[in-house]
Amino acid sequence: MDILFVVPYAPNLIRTRSHNLIRSLVERGNRVTVLTLWTNETERDDLARLKKRVHQVWALPMPAWRSMWNCLLALPGGRPLQSAYSWQPELISFLNGATQFDVVHVEHLRGSRYGLYFKEQGRWPVVWDSVDCISHLFRQAADSSQNLAGRWRSRFELKRTERYEGWLLRQFDRVLVTSSVDKQALASLSSNGAGQKISVLPNGVDLDYFAPDTVISREKNTIIVSGKMSYHANITMTLYLANEIMPHLWARRPDVKLWIVGKDPSREIRALGENTAVTVTGTVPDLRDYLRRATVAATPIPYGAGIQNKVLEAMACATPVVTTPQAISALDIQPGHDLLVADNPQAFAATLLNLLDNPQQQKKIGQAGRAYIEDKHHWNNIAARLEAIYCETMKTFERA
């Protein structure tokens, strides 16, 4: 197939969904043209590497001032700011005189405006990959986020996003989300059977990249929590772990270390490093080095949407995971076998403590987690499902 893949941020190892879908589609013999934006030289370098994989990359810079200006222009209206944030009309000019594509794939609410443009043109079927139901995420963040800015932003955007996502659902030929939970939440925003357009396409893991390394020894009594540490949901998760769970554990085992690994840690996250038992790394060259050396990965997610990549990546590295029920609601997984689940601070601390004291269980849970990822979240299998969705969408488009 000849695919136009539109993503409003540079696909890379951090933007794992677009990066791996594009890579897997190309490996399966498709011709992929990428239309995207970059915000710094690191992302520009990522795109230079991407050009070696795909048929073509069309990209323009997206400075922060332009995103802020887009949001200011959208502020008086009813559209969510997310839908305006990444709008760069000059990006469309690359398509002047473009050859025929079989299908257009547009990712995220931030990319939806580009998808609407292609629908207006009426030349190709458009698949909108919502990824998550953003209003579902905002609804949880408005009540539970420990980051004041994130809570205020979520409350401001919530009603706008609910209306807009419900409307968008009726505009595209097919809509994708990562989980059945998000499908249900998105479908509830619209009527007239628009929810029938939604297909679940889960996230996967690059199993060659995120893999165990038997040469590296795990450090005893070390817990890792990872993620982009400027994101409100990750801030809330990490503060919950450090302030409400770890004190129960440290009361019994003051020697346990906590690694907080992720880029752009907020002021609240940096402050946690004042505790000598806590290390806040900021950006690291390679997350795998930490996942492979930690004893346990903790992901006490109080709220969220879609599939949590941080859980999948830790499991792929055979690092045993302790998490909350919210984190596995989108997974077809066996708690107690593939990972461990606890739903309050005392239970979470007790589960971590028991696991730290039992090396045999650590190995057993880690190996089971890796086997689960190999079975359920291989990107090649997910790309095959996406190809089938493209074909179904193209047939429907031709009959219309």
What shape does the CA trace take?
Answer: globular
| N→C terminal distance | 20 Å
- Helix coverage percent of residues? 40-55%
CATH topology of the largest domain: Rossmann fold
Main sheet record: 7 strands, parallel
Mean of all residue-level pLDDT scores: 91
Structural class determined from secondary elements: alpha/beta
CATH superfamily of the largest domain: Glycogen Phosphorylase B
Name the helix and strand elements from N-terminus to C-terminus, one letter apiece.
Answer: EHEHEHHEHEHHEHEEHEHEHEHEEHHH
Secondary structure: number of strands: 13
Strand order of the largest sheet: 3-2-1-4-5-6-7
Spans of at least 5 consecutive residues whose pLDDT stays below 50 are none
How many DSSP helices? Answer: 15
* Structural domain count: 2
Task: Please characterize this protein's 3D structure.
This protein has 400 residues and is α/β, with parallel strands linked by helices. The protein has two domains: 2-204 and 379-399, Glycogen Phosphorylase B (Rossmann fold); 222-376, Glycogen Phosphorylase B (Rossmann fold, 3-Layer(aba) Sandwich). Helices cover 46% and strands 16% of the residues. It is built from 15 helices and 13 strands. The strands form two sheets. The protein has a seven-stranded parallel sheet with strand order 3-2-1-4-5-6-7, sandwiched between helices. Strands 10-9-8-11-12-13 form a six-stranded parallel sheet, sandwiched between helices. Helix 10 links the parallel strand 9 and strand 10 (278-282). Helix 9 crosses helix 13 (345-356). The longest helix is centred in the middle third of the chain and has 21 residues, at 148-168. The mean pLDDT is 91.
